[in-house]
Amino acid sequence: MKIATWNVNSVKARLDTVRAWLKVADPDVACFQEIKTQNETFPRDSFEDLGYNCTVHGQKSYNGVAILSKRPVEDVVRGLPGGDGDDHARYIEALIPSDNGVVRVASIYAPNGNPKGTEKFAYKLDWLERLRRHVETSLSTEENFVFMGDYNVIPTPDDAHYPENWVEDALFQPETRSAYRRIAHLGLTDAFRACHGAAYAYTFWDYQAGAWQKNNGIRIDHILLSPQATDRLTGCGIDKHVRGWDKPSDHVPVWCELAV
Fold first, then answer.
1. Minimal CA–CA distance to 91: which of 149, 177, 14, 8?
2. 239 labelled catalytic
3. For 113, what's the count of Cα atoms within 13 Å in the CB-facing half-sphere?
4. Residue 31 sits in a domain of what CATH number?
5. What is the number of structural domains in the chain?
6. Which residue out of 91, 109, 180, 202 is catalytically annotated?
7. Of 28, 52, 91, 150, which is the active-site residue?
8. Of 50, 59, 94, 108, which has the fewest beta carbons less than 10 angstroms from its beta carbon?
9. What is the residue range of 61's domain?
């Protein structure tokens, strides 16, 4: 099963690009973030034509997450548990049957948190702590679980071309990286790092200052696997070339393959 994640930065604005990638990459499951549209205006017909079932947790103009699956989708959870009063559409998970069991997949769009030291940064840290608690609970099911998406975290200096340029950014603050480690250290595996040790592997390049042309990128889109899913991991990659297409997102797809 090939499972991918991509912050598409407005699914309607980049519909042709997203469809083109789906046709070439052909994932069984695709998790989207920052779709920037409500459930009723999500262009599901364009994806159903390609054989995907669409499960959406949308929001007008901002945020929004979705799961596309070639297989039926069950047991959908919209919204990160524990957030009473939090109306940000940043989390959706679903159970997807496979040939040899099931895989539970979560599409995650964590808060950016900038500027540091503000309420936005406090919200980011609180949200990541809520995610940690939910991951801890989810791991008790011992399922094949894939927590994937835009975490808005640069985990280590190796995950930025120029880490010194990010020392004041919320994505690279010690508190942010510590919150991410607390999630990963519950027993999750970074699928990309499990398969690749190469430096200069990024998933985001800003639109400004020729970042793409200079490969001035960061790795903030991550696939974290439960121990059960890790045992079935057969490959992982970043579709960097998509950043060079017409009307690209500032993120690119990341994918893993599981023998399930």
1. 149
2. no
3. 28
4. 3.60.10.10
5. 1
6. 109
7. 150
8. 50
9. 2-258
